[in-house]
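ping. complex inputs:
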Amino acid sequence: MMVLQCKNVTKSYKKGVPVLKDFNLEVESGKIIGLLGPNGCGKSTLIKLISGLLQPDSGKITVCGEEIGEKSKALVSYLPERCYFSPSMKLRELVAFFSDFYTDFDAARAEALIKDLKIDINSNLKSLSKGTKEKVLLIMVMSRRARLYLLDEPIAGVDPAARDYILGTIVSNYDPEATIIITTHLITDIEQVLDEFVFLSYGGEILKTGNAEEARNESGKSLNELFKEVFR
Amino acid sequence: MKKILTFIFVVLLCVGLCLPALAAAPTATVSDDLRTVYFNETEYLRFNAEYLVDDTRQMVNVKLSESQKTEIKEVKLYSDYTYCVIRGVFKYADGTELTAYYIIKDAYSDAAKIINGKNVEAVINFINVPDLTVNMNGLKSGSEESFLRENTTLTFDVYAYAANGYVKFKIGYLAVYKGNYYYCDYAENEENSGSVPKARLVHPSSDLYKKIDASVNDYYNTGFGFLYYDDLVTVIAIILLLLLFIVAPAVIAVIFTVLAIIKKGTYRKIYIVIASLSAALLIVSVIISVII
Amino acid sequence: MIRKLLKYDFKEMMRFWLIAAITTAVLSVIGCGCANVVSCYQKYPEAIIILSWIFLAIVGLSYLAFSIVAIIIVFARFYKNLFTDEGYLTFTLPIKKITVLNSKIISGFSILFATSAVIFAEICLILHFVIIGGSPSDSSTGAIGIRIIWELINALVVDGYELAFSINALLVFLTSIAATLFKLLFIYVCITIGSIVAKKAKVAFAIAFYYIASSSFGTLMGILYTMVVPFLVERTTQISKGAGIAVGVLIFSAVFLTVLLGCAFCYAFLNKAIDRKLNLA
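pong. complex structure:
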């Protein structure tokens, strides 16, 4: 079943300079997909369009058949590049907040994962380090039973140990029926968890797509090497 | 502790700075012997008079000096709300009564203020006496028909003040004496020129009298009254009112009605609300303009 | 969903608002004593009277500060929750964007209205301890409390015009509420414009826009008022009493409708801007 469909999606920030032009993409359920491309090619823009933060100039995006809106947001779990929590909140309040708004949020799992990090559930978010905040953010996102997870640069700016934790959390909490779309520059770290990949160029042009394992077997190269080859 | 002391100091400083501003507010004062009235630094009242500002349509009593009392027993000044005219009745010692109408043109706002007594002091200022010696029979000054004696220092002039010191002068007055109407166009004479304004005798059937009477009664009520205004500011005010409260709501109502028909969802509801409010404002504005 | 949003909005704003409200309340309670002192000045030494006046001035300033704090609270909540990183969370919640906007309007308006109500109540409380003539034990000239406000209002009512006065008073009250809402929406519009238009210093841009726009608007209104009011007074003095009453009520209605229209425009702009123009960096 198609969990995501983008049809002729166009988006510009400045007139005459489209970030995405007639972009088309279909994603099946039950996959981990890497959305890979150089800076400014439209990866984050696409993620924001799917999550409902931006409106396309033209075209249509649907998630599980629902147009982007109230219903699609209930199906999508979004992890942005930055921390979006109010620093004045306590962790407990954050868990309560997510429980309040998301019916698919598993508060018990979230609290268990937070406990595993050895963080006091009553501590303020502003007292946590950057790396810990990133982890908490990921826990909250992955504790939802969403149909589509959008992870925008989940391992950027964190140490290697934290990267392993993040990737481990993604894989271990991932619902096989759901789809995860990950954008990243750190292809080497992420490629082992990817089922499929999309190489995105400027204007939203898809240069290459396919199964990650098959691409590696056919070319005898890693995805990272393939990326460098395609975007030379 | 330091912060608290700093805060208290800042508060005291602010209060101290505000006090002179409060003290400098303009006031009108009356001197002890009620001889003069000063409004800021300008002297307006030139003779002994005491005035009372009344905030309802009551008589404003004026007391006269001793020398004036020999000529006039009583002067009463009151306003007629409907006609916006101030009428003064002068009663002489010999029983003669002179009624003078003060038509205040282009001073409805000031007349209203006088009537309401808000921020305005109606002052009697006797400067120049109008020469009302001309009568239908061509009798000369000094004749027994003349109600003005020689060396008469009595005259009347009315200044209407707004609290901001803006002064409006009367431009004409109609006097009634022994059944005859006398009209004096004060506008012919300059302020404080020292010359004595001449009064023309007018017959009640004359065009001049009718014009004056009409002006007293319904000068501003004929047709589209604003067309008679020659005050540029008033004309601009009317145009602004028309644009803001009739033209603009009409345009907005039409545009947003069209948008409400075209659009769907939340935007449609918002556009319907805007169109409805504009239409309601237009209706209210039209009703107001019809009434006034 | 809007109830949940309001819960979190109020929770966030109340933390600071309650502190400010309690502070002014405490100052007002002390101010009651000072009001009593200054009105019965014969009984107290000069130093106490001077200190009481100073404290009353401080109380007055605290009301001003409280109003400003309330506006800052509302401003900060709207800006942070929609236009900073928190906006990523807000706009990805499974709710309509208009629900988010409505929640901010309801919570912001409630805070502003509550602030005005609290200040008004505290002023009435202080007035209640002002003694006019006589001694506190003399019931005929004792504490005036809200009586002075009621007497001031009654003095405005002219015999025979009671119904018109009541209608106009109601319209004035409704207009003041609508004006509070308009002020809130206008602040939100300025923040939205600042966030969308400015690349840096968005808050400064929003504040500057607010002051420029409100000063220009105020100047325009002042000019209009100066030009138009004398004309209207002249016209209304020429018509009959009944017509004059009707015109008075209609003018108040027109003002009320104009303010509501302003609110509707601001709301439409906010809805459009947040829906279509917002791009969180």
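Helices of chain C lie at 2-39, 46-83, 86-90, 97-128, 147-156, 162-197, 202-236, 241-277.
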